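Read as chain and fold; for instance:
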Amino acid sequence: MTSTPTGRRVTVDGLDSIAFDRTFRAGIEDVWAAVTEPERLARWIGAWTGDPSTGSVRFRMLYEGDEHQAELFTIEECRAPRRLVLTSRVPGQEFAWHMTLTLVEHEGVTTLTFSQSVGDDPAMAGGVGPGWDYYLDRLVVAETGGDPASVDFGDYHPVHAQHYLDLFG
């Protein structure tokens, strides 16, 4: 599979970020479930544990090897099924990642816009951009009945790293 970088530079809540759009021929509730329900998340990205009503959960990426540690995700805002704002702190790192998911439905087609900050170091875009293109493409494949394992990270990174570095260069 040949991939194309889809992210664009944006400012979200005053932070330099990369935003991505994916469109689904599905209702907003269904797409919301795909990005929030544990069993559906596990098909394409990872798993969370804990009680979201407390304002935080632990999230672990499932497709980045066994050494990947669970991260604490703070739920800053949740307006189901339209908006979810999260902050994550990775153990051993000083900064936080800020992520925003916005869903809009029009005539049975839902657009998911996902953005993530790149932190204080613009060079982070070289990993963040290709990584989210990869995972969001896995989401699309999972939600259209395909096998997310068919999406190869090597088609995204390091192939598209320079595209994202140039956005912040």
Q: What stands out?
A: The radius of gyration is 15 Å. The first strand starts at residue 8 and ends at 12.
